[in-house]
Every structure is written in structure tokens, then in C-alpha cells.
């Protein structure tokens, strides 16, 4: 950087320069930690995915060598990859839409103050804060064909002929009003779990936004004769849209990469083989590090493409609304 | 009745129905867990649909079974509780130490690249954990950190630093700038301002962030499974319970007792800090 006057960069005043140094000094420890344990490993994933690497070879292997596209060819041609990707998409969209919709309903129901609302608000968050291992156990037990309360009640009160194995039935034939429908029951159950566990997250954000909505507009609309649904549709919903959009992106990313919920509930069997469980299987069953890295990378790239499409679509709509 | 009156009345009723259903849906699984943990396996098999246990069959044997060390015929959950506590507390201390200076710098100081670094921290928060799993797995088996609690804590720091920076940054911006300026005029260095002025004022929020980090570390499962599965002595509670469920034939009621033990610390901490926690997490949401 030139110190000559008239250089392109404006020179900092001594005070600014001092603040600049202090800022960098304060941020550098944090930055260093993030670089070493997040950024470097991710870059290494990219390298590994282009290498023929098994865990045993890694002791002797150097960092750059044996370049290959074999891992990616393997990922795309392996049986089950495309169906697994489809399963992931269904799971993600179902979980995202469902949890935000339920969160919205809960936030609207708890919007106006009443006795005990504070306690109820805390209670609604229980599924989200409780350990995933504990809550998956409870679901597994409650849905179990032998010891589960759901099947016991279903048989006694609802007249089910035999217990339903919710978490291990990939194709359930149901008779609805004389129609035979095939339901991917295990997948639907996992999606239901996802909705149950993550609706509190959406609820929390939407309730915070609802409480910041000024009351005046709604009162004016009421005076003008707008009904409850009209007020929701034309006053509340537009104000909630930015939060809903943000939640959709957050939940989509998180659910797309979700591993433990599915792994603990079904182990990825019975039509619930989401991609993250496949990555885990590659890694631990065959110690095929290269393939696992390639698979994780493909998953991340697909996620980025989907988000890119979403933002392109969303940005366009915002522009249209402003025009 | 006009449409407006009808809707007011209709949704007034629907609202209470919705609240009732939601309360049942969120509370019942936890009630079910606690209830089963006090029943005996035989009684559960005989009557799986019971909503409350028969008073005569109540037992504490499940808790003894799950907590006692394996040498005395139990499942050894106490040792796992110790492992979980060590990892989680270590993660909290190190994560806060790593994120406080950075969060303060981003929220207060103007420096070259501050916006880019801020964006990087946010991006890191959204990176999928599966992308991290493979290289960390490889790295740790190479340098011998696999099967160690320290290695696991390092991974948890990577997972929690971004969200901790985000929460702390929001808190720090609520500390009035004038107080910091007054301290600076009195001759405090920036380090002193951070230590003596900002941190005491942000203490409750620091605690809330710490609790959130603790909950993430305490509940985590994937990385514990990847790194510790082969070393039973180092199992955390989450990992240990899931391994019991898979490999060894442990009765459901005993597993439920273990789940209760696993859940209680989190719920207690959550209720203790709920207000700070919810405000910290959503403080960005009501501004947009």
C-alpha cells in the first residue's frame, strides 16, 4: 500500500488505523479457530473426494496424489443413489413445510396473553431442547408393535386388526373409502417426527415477530369491518413473510443434512435412506474415505444449487412486488 | 350473526382446541418416558396401553440397573454421565473463550474485512456437519485423537463457535456505546473495557449462550458415534444409550430410565435460562 497522497485508497486517520489494528487483533483468535477446525477440514473434503483413499492407506499417502474422478462416478452410478436423493428431498420438504406450518398455528394460538402462557411457551419448546436420543427412544417405544401405547390403543379403541410397524414398513397398503393407497409409512413417520421436533423452532421465531407487530393497523381494519381471517391474510401474513422465508431456508438446510433423527429411528432402512446416512455407511462400513467425501460433497453442491434456485426465484418475486 | 362475529367465535374455540392438542403432543411423550421408567418390563408387556402405572408395580430397579457400574451388573451410566459432563463443560469454556473477542470486535470495532469475516462466521453456521465428519474422522485417526474426549470437544467447538458468535454479537450491540466510551476516556484499554465493562454487563447473556452451547454438546450424537464407538470407556450418555439399544438386550423400561437421566439436566438448565435463551436466539427475527 502506498502512503503517497492521491493513492487510490484513502488513508486512515491514526485513530482509525489504531481501531483497525485492534479489531484484527481481537478477531484473529476466533478466526483462527474457525479456520483450523472448520474451513481447513472442508477444503480437505474436496481434496479427498478426488482421491482413491481408504482409511488404511492414509498413513502412507501424501496429501496430493492419485487424482481420480472414480469416486464421483461411483457415487452417481451406485444403486440407490437417486432414490436416496429423492427420499432426502421428500423428507426435507415435508419436515420444513410441516414444522413451519405447525409453528405458525402454535404462534397464532399463543399470541394473545392469557394466564399460564409463559409456562405453555416454555413447554412448547421441550421437543426441540430435549436430547435426540431420548426422544427417538420414546417415539420408538410408543410406536412399537409389541410394547407401544399407540398400537395398543389402536387395536382396542380404533379397531385395528393387527399392530402396525410404523418404523419398519416401507410400503403400507391402506384402504381409504374403498381406495387402495400405498403409503411409505416409515418415511411418513420420520417426517412426522421431524415436524414434532422442530415446530418449536419456527414457533419461537414467529411468536417473537408476531409480538412486534403494532396493534394499530389491525384495530383500524377491525373498525373497517375486516374479519379475523381477512386480517390474518392481509395484515399479519405479509409482515410474517420475511421470517417465514428465513425459516424455510434455515430448516431446509438443517433437515437436508440431518443424520441423527433418521439414523436413530430407522437406521436408514424401510425407505428412509437419506443421503447423510449413506455418507455415514460409506465411512464406517467400508472405511471408503474417498467415496464418503465425494458423497458429502455432492450433497452439499445439490443443496447449494437448490438454494440458488430458491434465491433466484425469491429475489425475482420481491422485485416484482416492489415494481 | 355476521361473518366477523362468527369467525371470532369459531376461532376463539379452535384456539383452545389447538392449544390443548399442542400441549398433549409436547408433554405426553415426556410423561410417557417418565411413567415407563418406573414400571417393570413384565407389567409393560402385559398392559402396554396403560396411561398410568399400577401403584403396586412401581419400581426404582430400572434406575439402579442403568446407573450402576458394569462390574456390579448395571449398565454403567454414571461413568457416561461423567464423560458427557466433562466434554460439555470443556466445550462451553473453550467456545466462549474463542468467540467472545471475535463477537465483540465484529459488533463494535471498524476494521478492514470486518463485513467479510462476519459473513464467513454466518456461512460456517450453515455448513453441513456431514461435510466436516469425513475429514475430521480421517484427521483424528491420523493424529491419534480418535477415541479421546478432547478430540470430541474440539469438534463440538467447531460446531458451536458460529452460533455462539451470532448470539454474543446480538447481546454486545445492546450494551450502550456511551458506557464503553466513558471507560475509554477514563483511560481504559480495549482489553480492560471488554473485561471490566462489557463482560459484567453482558454476564446474563454470556450465561445463556453458555447454556445453549452446553445443550448442543450434551445432546450431540453423530460425532460421538463416529469417534468414540470403539472405546466404551469414553462413551457419552447419548452414545451409550443408543449402543445399549442396538447391541445388548436391555429392557425398554431401563432404557427409559436412562433417557430420563439424560433429559433432566437439559430441561432444568433450559427452564433456568429460558427467557434469555429465547430472546438471544430470536433477537434478529423481530427487526426484519
UniProtKB/TrEMBL annotation, chain A:
Q: Which keywords does this Swiss-Prot/TrEMBL entry list?
A: Cell membrane, Membrane, Transmembrane, Transmembrane helix, Transport
Question: Do the record's keywords include Transport?
Answer: yes
Q: Per its UniProt record, what Pfam families does this chain match?
A: BPD_transp_1 (PF00528)
**Topology in the membrane?**
Multi-pass membrane protein
Q: Highest taxon of the source?
A: Bacteria
Does Transport appear among the keywords? yes
Gene3D superfamilies, per the entry: MetI-like (1.10.3720.10)
Residue ranges occupied by any ABC transmembrane type-1 domain in the UniProt entry:
85-310
GO biological process terms, semicolon-separated: transmembrane transport
Q: Where are the transmembrane segments?
A: 21-44, 89-110, 122-139, 185-207, 235-254, 292-315
* GO cellular component assignments: plasma membrane
Compartments annotated for it: namely: Cell membrane
Protein family per UniProt: Belongs to the binding-protein-dependent transport system permease family.
Protein's recorded name: Sugar ABC transporter permease
Instruction: Give the organism the record lists.
Output: Streptantibioticus silvisoli
From TrEMBL, chain B:
What GO biological process, any one, is recorded here?
A: transmembrane transport
Residue span, ABC transmembrane type-1 domain: 81-273
* Major localization class: membrane
Q: Indicate how the chain sits in the lipid bilayer.
A: Multi-pass membrane protein
Which keywords annotate this record? Answer: Cell membrane, Membrane, Transmembrane, Transmembrane helix, Transport
The residue stretches assigned to a coiled coil in this entry are none
Please give the superkingdom of this protein's source. Answer: Bacteria
UniProt key word Membrane: yes
Q: Which GO terms describe its cellular component?
A: plasma membrane
Where would you find this protein in the cell? Cell membrane
Q: Where are the transmembrane segments?
A: 12-34, 85-107, 119-143, 149-168, 197-215, 253-273
The record's similarity note reads: Belongs to the binding-protein-dependent transport system permease family.
PANTHER family membership: INNER MEMBRANE ABC TRANSPORTER PERMEASE PROTEIN YCJP, MALTOSE TRANSPORT SYSTEM PERMEASE-RELATED
Q: What is this protein called?
A: Carbohydrate ABC transporter permease
What organism does this protein naturally occur in? Streptantibioticus silvisoli
Amino acid at each position: 500500500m502506498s502512503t503517497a497522497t492521491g493513492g487510490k485508497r484513502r488513508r486512515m486517520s491514526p485513530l482509525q488505523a489504531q481501531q483497525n489494528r485492534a479489531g484484527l487483533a481481537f478477531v484473529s483468535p476466533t478466526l483462527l479457530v474457525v479456520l483450523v477446525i472448520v474451513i481447513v477440514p472442508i477444503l480437505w473434503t474436496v481434496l479427498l473426494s478426488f482421491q482413491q483413499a481408504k482409511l488404511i492407506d492414509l498413513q502412507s499417502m501424501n496429501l496430493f496424489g492419485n487424482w481420480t474422478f472414480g469416486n464421483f462416478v461411483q457415487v452417481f452410478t451406485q444403486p440407490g443413489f437417486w432414490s436416496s436423493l429423492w427420499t432426502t428431498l421428500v423428507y426435507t420438504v415435508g419436515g420444513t413445510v410441516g414444522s413451519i406450518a405447525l409453528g405458525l398455528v402454535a404462534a397464532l394460538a399463543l399470541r394473545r396473553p392469557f394466564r399460564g402462557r409463559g409456562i405453555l411457551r416454555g413447554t412448547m419448546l421441550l421437543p426441540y431442547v430435549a436430547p435426540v436420543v431420548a426422544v427417538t427412544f420414546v417415539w420408538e417405544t410408543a410406536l412399537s408393535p409389541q410394547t407401544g401405547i399407540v398400537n395398543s390403543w389402536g387395536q382396542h379403541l380404533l379397531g385395528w386388526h393387527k399392530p402396525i410397524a410404523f418404523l419398519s414398513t416401507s410400503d403400507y397398503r391402506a384402504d381409504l373409502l374403498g381406495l387402495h393407497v400405498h403409503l411409505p409409512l416409515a418415511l411418513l413417520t420420520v417426517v412426522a417426527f421431524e415436524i414434532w421436533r422442530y415446530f418449536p423452532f419456527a414457533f419461537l421465531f414467529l411468536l417473537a415477530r408476531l409480538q412486534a407487530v403494532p396493534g394499530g393497523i389491525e384495530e383500524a381494519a377491525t373498525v373497517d369491518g375486516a374479519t379475523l381471517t381477512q386480517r390474518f391474510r392481509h395484515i399479519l401474513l405479509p409482515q410474517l413473510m420475511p421470517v417465514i422465508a428465513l425459516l424455510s431456508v434455515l430448516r431446509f438446510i438443517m433437515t437436508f443434512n440431518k443424520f441423527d433423527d433418521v439414523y436413530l429411528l430407522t437406521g436408514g432402512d424401510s425407505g428412509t435412506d437419506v443421503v447423510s446416512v449413506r455418507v455415514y455407511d460409506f465411512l464406517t462400513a467400508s472405511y471408503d474415505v474417498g467415496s464418503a467425501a465425494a458423497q458429502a460433497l455432492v450433497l452439499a453442491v445439490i443443496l447449494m444449487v437448490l438454494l440458488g434456485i430458491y434465491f433466484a426465484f425469491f429475489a425475482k418475486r420481491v422485485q416484482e412486488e416492489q415494481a | 350473526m355476521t361473518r366477523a362475529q362468527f369467525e371470532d367465535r369459531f376461532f376463539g374455540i379452535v384456539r383452545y382446541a389447538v392449544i390443548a392438542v399442542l400441549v398433549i403432543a409436547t408433554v405426553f411423550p415426556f410423561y410417557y418416558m417418565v411413567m415407563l421408567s418406573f414400571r417393570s418390563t413384565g407389567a409393560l408387556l402385559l398392559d402396554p396401553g396403560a396411561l398410568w402405572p399400577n401403584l403396586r408395580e412401581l419400581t426404582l430397579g430400572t434406575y439402579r440397573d442403568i446407573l450402576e457400574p458394569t462390574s456390579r451388573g448395571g449398565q454403567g451410566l454414571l461413568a457416561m454421565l461423567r464423560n458427557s459432563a466433562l466434554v460439555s463443560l470443556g466445550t462451553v469454556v473453550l467456545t466462549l473463550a474463542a468467540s467472545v473477542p471475535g463477537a465483540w470486535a465484529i459488533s463494535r470495532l471498524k476494521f478492514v474485512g470486518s463485513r467479510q469475516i462476519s459473513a464467513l462466521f454466518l456461512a460456517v453456521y450453515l455448513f453441513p456437519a456431514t461435510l466436516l465428519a469425513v475429514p475430521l474422522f480421517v484427521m483424528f485417526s491420523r493424529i491419534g485423537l480418535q477415541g479421546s474426549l478432547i478430540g470430541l470437544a474440539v469438534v463440538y467447538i467447531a460446531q458451536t463457535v458460529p452460533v455462539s458468535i451470532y448470539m454474543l454479537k446480538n447481546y454486545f450491540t445492546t450494551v450502550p456505546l456511551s458506557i464503553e466510551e466513558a471507560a475509554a476516556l477514563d483511560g481504559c484499554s480495549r482489553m480492560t473495557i471488554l473485561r471490566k465493562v462489557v463482560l459484567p454487563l453482558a454476564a446474563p447473556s454470556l450465561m445463556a449462550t453458555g447454556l445453549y452451547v452446553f445443550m448442543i454438546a450434551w445432546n450431540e450424537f453423530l460425532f460421538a458415534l463416529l469417534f468414540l464407538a470403539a472405546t466404551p470407556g469414553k462413551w457419552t450418555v447419548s452414545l451409550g444409550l443408543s449402543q445399549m439399544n442396538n447391541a445388548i438386550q436391555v429392557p425398554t423400561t431401563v432404557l427409559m430410565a436412562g433417557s430420563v437421566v439424560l433429559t433432566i439436566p437439559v430441561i432444568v438448565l433450559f427452564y433456568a435460562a429460558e427467557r434469555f435463551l429465547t430472546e438471544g436466539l430470536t433477537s434478529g427475527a423481530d427487526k426484519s
